[in-house]
Design brief:
373 residues; alpha+beta; Alpha-Beta Plaits; 2 domains; six-stranded mixed β-sheet; 12 helices; 6 strands; 66% helix
């Protein structure tokens, strides 16, 4: 948004919307003001009365704009202040009805437009209240003017006008209220649909237990990082991490505690990994860690620090004395075409770490582990 428009409408999205709607209504005010003075020009209205009404017609939208632009209504239930604005509009129309009797039928049409506009800004109840207010105020003007000036406000015609207003305006308010309720239901359904899509996306990309990336998302991230590594000629290290002796924990303490241990390890690794590293659950008690722009030697140091921190950490609040370790296998991805090869290398290195006593980090070619307790 350009600076002048930002100054006019504000920077906050909801504030911009209510101000734009208010200025749309101000255009109707402008047309009505032109019609008012056209009527004065044609001798259909008194100049003094028109001048007083013009002050209200100009002041009402300017006041509404100033209040909305100030942001004072931002936390209100009705931040657009729709009900007061429309009541002010109905008041102006009632005054115009008394000032310009020659076009009072057209004024009733504009009153119907105001009530219909409530479908876009007001609740069904507020729309009904507005229609009742319009019928009461216009009916009062019809009654007073037919008694004070029966020559221009024929009582029979005013009774007919009242019957029409008392029929049309409430009917419009009912329809507008139904439309408003429909819009609110659609808005609620759209919000629920967005939430459902977010949940589906999360289920599709996140591990339900730990909240980490799942295997599918990890493969996508691995392909993306491998492409980046190839373009930037920067090494991408990957590490398969597997908990040591996890089956006995499940057998001895139950699967609930096993799940708690997995979540505890996931939280610990997530806290300790570097910014830019990618961690996810590869399956079971196995995790995959991606270390972009990290050569093998540095990756071994990073993972070995994670291994040492894990061995010293409490990962279960239910069993604080429980200590766990993990074994890890490292590999480096050279290109997107070498992903499966690197995964196989990391898996073989992990198998060797398990075979050599666990609680250690092995690379794809080293005869000795890269890190051990």
């Amino acid at each position: 948004m350009t600076a002048p428009l930002a100054w006019l409408f504000g920077h906050e999205r909801r504030q911009r919307i209510v101000i734009q709607r208010s200025l749309t209504a101000a255009l109707v005010y402008a047309v009505c003001l032109a019609v008012l003075w056209w009527s004065v020009w044609e001798g259909l209205a008194q100049r003094q009365a028109a001048a007083w009404l013009s002050v209200v017609v100009v002041g009402a939208p300017l006041t509404a704009y100033a209040v909305l632009r100030s942001g004072a209504t931002r936390g209100w239930v009705d931040p657009s202040v729709a009900v007061p604005q429309m009541m002010a509009a109905i008041g102006c129309l009632a005054a115009a009805y008394a000032i310009i009797p020659a076009i009072r039928g057209s004024i009733l049409m504009v009153a119907a437009l105001v009530v219909t506009f409530g479908a876009y800004t007001m609740t069904p109840r507020a729309t009904r209240v507005l229609a009742l207010f319009a019928v009461t105020l216009l009916g009062g003007v019809m009654l007073v003017m037919s008694q004070r000036d029966p020559q221009r406000f024929d009582p029979i015609v005013e009774r007919l006008h009242f019957v029409i207003a008392a029929t049309v305006l409430p009917t419009l308010s009912l329809l507008a209220g139904q439309l408003s309720a429909l819009r609110r239901r659609m808005k609620l359904q759209a919000a629920e649909l967005r939430q459902a899509l977010e949940r589906i996306q999360r289920l599709a990309t996140r591990d339900e237990l730990t909240g980490l990336y799942n295997r599918r998302r990890l493969r996508d991230e691995l392909a993306r990082e491998a492409d980046r590594a190839q373009r930037q000629r920067a090494p991408l290290a990957l590490c398969l991490i597997d908990l040591d002796h996890f089956k006995p924990i499940n057998d001895r303490h139950g699967h609930a505690l096993g799940d708690e241990v997995l979540c505890g390890l996931a939280d610990l690794l997530l806290r300790l990994t570097r910014s830019g590293d990618i961690l996810g659950r590869w399956g079971g008690e196995e995790f995959l860690l991606l270390l972009p722009a990290t050569p093998m030697a540095q990756a071994a140091e990073v993972v070995d620090r994670l291994r040492a921190a894990t061995a010293a950490a409490m990962v279960s609040a239910s069993l604080p004395e429980l200590r766990i370790t993990f074994s890890a296998g490292l590999a480096v991805v050279d290109s997107a075409d070498a992903i499966e090869t690197a995964l196989e290398q990391a898996d073989r290195a992990l198998y060797r770490a398990k075979a050599e006593g666990r609680d250690r980090v092995c690379g794809p070619v080293q005869a000795e582990p890269l890190g051990r307790a």
